C-alpha cells in the first residue's frame, strides 16, 4: 500500500445521489440570485479560546487592498471563556465592518454554519483563526469569482505554512497535507484533471457561494473538529455535494493565506491520532455522500494493512522515519475499519478517545 493510494482514498468519488444535512434554509439564502460582476464577500472567522491567533487574523483582514466598506466580517465565538469572549467582542467592535456571533455548542462545522446564517454577502469566505490573509485576499476572491461570471460555488486557495517550529525530520514528506498546507501553483476545476486529483479544498481558505451552500444544506455537522477529536473532511464533503449538484468547484492559487503550523502538533501521538480520525472521517464522508459500496470495497484491504502493521506499533524509537511510515498507515487503517464496523454501536471508546458512531 503506497502513500499515494492512501491519500487518493481520502477523496470520495462523484455520485449524483447526495444526502443533504439538517442545515435549515435561511430566509436570506433561500433565493438563488445571479452573483454580480464584483460579488460581495462576507468573511467568516470561527474561534474558540485562541485570542492570540484570532487577533492576528483580524489584523490581516484590516490590511486588505479592499477597504472595510468592501466586505463584512462575521466573527464566530464558539464557546470561549468569558474573558476571551469579551476580548473577541472588542475585536469585532474595533474592526468597524465586523459583527460577533456567539455559538454555545462546540464543533467547527456548527460554527461555520452559524457564520453563514449571519452573513449577507454573495460569497462566504472562510479563514481559520490561526491563518493570516494575504493583503489582496478579498480582491483576488472577487476577481476569480468575476472572471467566471459568479458561477463557482466553491473556490479553494493556496495555504502556505508559517512554521512555529521546524518540521521534524521523521515527518513523512507525503503528509504535509494533514497540516492543511496547499502549495500548488495554478488554477482549475477540482476532480476534472485540471488540477492534481489529490488536491482538496481546506476550510482554512475556502470560499462558498452562499445561495448554493444553503441549497445543499451547508457543512455536515457530523464531520469536522469537535473539541480534541480530530475529525475532518467536512469541507471536502460539502464541496463534492456541490459538484454533484451541478455546481462548479475551482482552485486558484492567487487566493492565498498563511497558516500557523503549531509546534504542539510535531509529535508522533498527534500525527497518528490525526491519521486515525482521517480514516474514520473517510468512512463517514462516503456514507454521507450515499456511497457505502466504496467503504465495503476497501474494507478488507484496510483490515489487512491494520493486521500486518500492528507489530510495528510496539517498536521503538517511535520517531524512526521508516517505522513512522508503517505506523501512520496502521493508524489510518484502524480508523477506517473501526468506523466501518461501528454501525449502530452508539458511543464506542477508541484508543484516541470516544466517538459517536451512526447507523449505516
Automatic annotation (TrEMBL):
Q: Can you tell me which residues the record assigns to a coiled coil? A: none
**In what ranges is there compositional bias, type Polar residues?**
1-20
Matching entries from InterPro entries are given as: Glyco_trans_2-like (IPR001173), Glycosyltransf_2 (IPR050834), Nucleotide-diphossugar_trans (IPR029044)
Q: Tell me one GO molecular function of this protein.
A: transferase activity
What region holds the Glycosyltransferase 2-like domain?
Answer: 42-149
Keywords from the UniProt entry: Transferase
Chain positions covered by the region annotation Disordered: 1-21
Q: Which SUPFAM superfamilies match?
A: Nucleotide-diphospho-sugar transferases
The protein's name is: Glycosyltransferase
